[in-house]
Amino acid sequence: MTGDPSLGLLVLMGLAALTAGWIDAVVGGGGLVQLPALMVGFPAAAPVQILATNKLSSVFGTAVSSVTYYRRVRPDLRTALPMAGLAFVGSLGGALLASRIPKEAFNPIILVVLVGVGAYTLAKPSMGTMSALRFHGSRRHVVLAGLVGFVVGSYDGLLGPGTGSFLVFALVGLLGYGFLQASAKAKIANLATNLAALCIFIPMGAVMWKVGLLMGLCNLAGGYLGARTAVARGSGFVRAVFVVVVGAFVLKIGWDTVVQFTG
């Protein structure tokens, strides 16, 4: 990036971050808004600068939504913290590998997974409307949650789009959480993955600090409002937003895949 961004551009980045923070807090997937906004707003920036600045902004929103969810939903930290710890480790490893693996190799795989996630959620309308925990109170429950954190955390460090949505779906589909409880635990794990990625990106000098901090404040506001909205509206509302966000991801990544193979 060269030169200072204009006031108009900063306002647009702030609005994008506010919207992304709200979506991320409700069900994950705010990167669908924030990453393209940064790419369009700063076409001269290196890809690593875009990724690093996006992570800086996102960590504000995930931090405040994690606190809001904890205060209002009280997720079980005996599950959430081990999951977040392994998500942190996975994200560190993914971020270290990110420069070695071409993103275009993953778009078709992500597309297939997202279509499967969306179709499964639509086919089971009762899924996630209430908690019906599997292996609750056992070591197996915590181990499976930790495995979810590690796998999705590795993906977040490596690529990133849809991390929050994948965490929510895994907690609902594999462990039987309701969407609201799943979102609360997903935010704690997503905060860990964002912090881990910044541990790699900041020493590299990749963050655009002025833009990232401004967007971070807006993302924080969006995260706070989104978490409060989700808590007030309940699992049915979160499920509806989840389906919409996954659908948007399918369209976006589907289009990217078409362009990749035809362009």
Please describe what this structure looks like.
The chain has 263 residues and is mainly α. The protein has one domain (7-262). The chain is 78% helix and 0% strand. It has helices spanning 7-26, 31-41, 47-73, 77-97, 107-123, 139-158, 163-175, 179-201, 209-233, 235-262. It starts with 6 loop residues before the first helix and ends with a helix. The model has no long low-confidence stretch (mean pLDDT 84). This is Probable membrane transporter protein.
List the helices and strands and how they pair.
Blueprint: H1 7-26, H2 31-41, H3 47-73, H4 77-97, H5 107-123, H6 139-158, H7 163-175, H8 179-201, H9 209-233, H10 235-262
Helix pairs in contact: 1-2, 1-3, 1-9, 2-3, 3-8, 3-9, 4-6, 4-8, 5-10, 6-7, 6-8, 7-8, 8-10
Task: Give the C-alpha Rg.
Answer: 17 Å
Q: What's the domain count?
A: 1
Biggest beta sheet attributes: none
| Helix-strand category | mainly alpha
Strand content of the residues, in percent?
under 5%
In N-to-C order, the SSE pattern is HHHHHHHHHH
- How many angstroms does the end-to-end distance come to? 26 Å
Mean pLDDT: 84
Number of helices: 10
Tell how many strands the DSSP assignment holds.
0
- Helical fraction: over 70%
Oligomer: single chain
Question: What sort of overall outline do the alpha carbons produce when their principal axes are compared?
Answer: globular
Transmembrane segments: 80-99, 105-122, 166-183, 195-217, 237-255
InterPro entries: TM_pro_TauE-like (IPR002781), TSUP (IPR052017)
Keywords: Cell membrane, Membrane, Transmembrane, Transmembrane helix, Transport
Protein name: Probable membrane transporter protein
